[in-house]
Amino acid sequence: MKKMMLSITALMLLLVTACSQESAQPKSEASPSAAPAASAEASAAPQAEKKLPRVAFVYIGVPGDGGWTYEHDQGRLMMEKELGIKSTTVENVPEGADAERVFEELAQKNDVVIGTSFGYMDPMYNVAQKYPNVKFLHATGYKTLPNMGTYMGREYQSAYLVGMAAGKLTKNNHLGYVGAYPIPEVIYTINAFTLGAQSTNPNIDVSVVWSNTWFDPATEKQAATSLLDKGVDVLAAYQDSPASIQAAAERGVWGIGNDSDMGKYAPDTYISNPKWNWGPYYTQTIKAIMDGTWKSESYLGSMKDGITTTAPFGKNVPQDVKDLVEKKKQEIIDGTFDVFQGPITDQDGKIRLEAGKKMTDEEILNTNWFVKGIVGTIPK
């Protein structure tokens, strides 16, 4: 009996000791109850610490314009998808006092405010000075601050290429161009278009009229009609709407749009047009802001980095014209050809650029004169 009691006592002691040792040892890394929880906490921690910036866009028009605002909105959507950000937009904001009020309101609620029209420059600049902790991005302007940068692209490269096509397709050597506003951005684009046309047809001239609009289809169609009445047989335009190429199509005249692929608006008479691609810029810039590496700059993209290109050719553009343009496009991308290289003479016969020289970015961005071959004036 004693032996039995001693055996039972010893057995109990062994069981207690074993349980104590098991509870004292750390759980294995492979333990199904511990590992997933620890892993989830570790992966959730960085997500909790990473704060997504609040981003707001201000548009001069609406994405439905099929041109300038449409392409900016496409870029915004790409940025949202790439970075997991949900941004906000304010549409149809006029340039001037209204824009400043909108920028002020957005600066109070957002980390990044983006303005997509040249005329927003001064209103944004005024507001940016009052909100140094907010980042501001302005399209096509030239004023900067430590918290305000600008961005633009060498769209004149694309304009030169569609000008080449225009020079090949004209029958009477008279081209027309409906300019938006007489600012450098529009002026040097018209110059590039003309130089491109002259490269394939030295006998052309380009008549220019001004609509003084960015998006006003009725006014732009009226301006286009005034050129068509003069007998131009290729018509280009710089506005955000397809009104000009639609007017051209009604007369059976070749049309060149702007900013986005406008082929669907005049499928039978459409040539092509300069096209924007803002997505990579918005994505890279907002990511830099998120990473804390962003610095104010005056960004000027090109065909090489894809910010500007040409829209697909219309269905009735001959293959030899397409091939000619594509070859020159590759030269521009490779850096073996520069649009603004001498000799260049202005419409008054003055030599603006001597042979062998190239215009600097600063000279291009401050252009206030027309090249030889343009018929029209630049309002002061």
Automatic annotation (TrEMBL):
Q: What keyword terms does UniProt attach to this protein?
A: Signal
Establish whether keyword Transcription regulation is in the entry: no
- Segments passing through the bilayer: none
Keyword Signal in record:
yes
Q: Which residues form the ABC transporter substrate-binding protein PnrA-like domain?
A: 54-334
Q: Where is this region: Disordered?
A: 26-45
Q: Which Pfam families match?
A: Bmp (PF02608)
Gene3D superfamilies given in the database record: 3.40.50.2300
N-terminal signal peptide: 1-24
Which InterPro entries does this UniProt record tie to the protein?
A: ABC-Purine-Binding, Peripla_BP_I, PnrA-like
PROSITE patterns to which the protein is assigned, alphabetical: PROKAR_LIPOPROTEIN
PANTHER family for this protein: ABC TRANSPORTER SUBSTRATE-BINDING PROTEIN
For this entry, the protein name equals: BMP family ABC transporter substrate-binding protein
| Organism expressing this protein natively | Paenibacillus hexagrammi
